[in-house]
Give the backbone structure.
Amino acid sequence: MNMQAKNSKVPVHKKYKDRLFCHLFSEKAHALSLYNAINETNYTDVENLEIVTLEDVLYLSMKNDLALCFHDCLDLFEQQSTVNLNMPVRGFLYFARELEGWLSRYSVNIYQRKQVEIPAPGYYVLYNGSTNLPEKQTLLLSDAFKKKVTGYEWTAHVLNINVGKNDDLMEHCPTLKEYSQFIESIKKHRKDGLTMEEAINQSIDSCIEEGILEEYLRKHKAEVKGMVLTEFDQKLYEETLYAEGREDGRREGIQKGKEEGRFISMEQLISNAHLSQEEAMKLLNFSLEEQEAYKQWKIDS
């Protein structure tokens, strides 16, 4: 598969590195509001909150959106617009990297005999895609284990943040509520037939008029447009790769089916016509490559 050729099909606005969610909640006041809403707390000491999000965790296409270290907790947040049952695996790896950074920052020696203390983990996936998911869902790392064992677990708490979902959470975090309203506005304009760029411009203007993320959108108007376009391009790029991968798989499956059909025909000739393997291959005009493939097929089956 020619990855370079496929990459060129969907342009990505690389100027804007952050995702909108990440950029919005990188402001400490917004992050504190989100933390309090998720954990049902009422902390006000924003100066003690640390935003410790690692950039480009693991792979370019696999980034942790937000990590907060606050009151002996290390909470990770991931905004998702697609359903992904592998979030517990991803979150587990994110936390390991975040914890590694925390241990280094505070010079914690895990090789000493005395028990060390680490922040308690929390992992939250904030979903705003089009699939109708329940308001709250729990995904477990153990569901991915090939062999079921007990005593090892990691939990991804999936929260549906689409407009009309988890109202109590939204009321306790106005920034999250207004973020969801802004995204919903873009979706609505897209359904009405506007281009992505037109939908973003219309949504920015209307949300400012209605007081939705007003201060943030006025301050970061150009950046917001760039970030949302980047997310749209990235999603389109991933969907393109997925579609092309499915097509490649379909063609490969057809070819494999034809090949297997030839092998079965040869087996029937050997069995019913009492031909030798060499005679059957000659009758069916097997190439040298097909002869080797048939031998391997016999071994595998």
User: Anything to note?
Assistant: The chain has eleven helices and six strands. The radius of gyration is 26 Å. The mean pLDDT is 83.
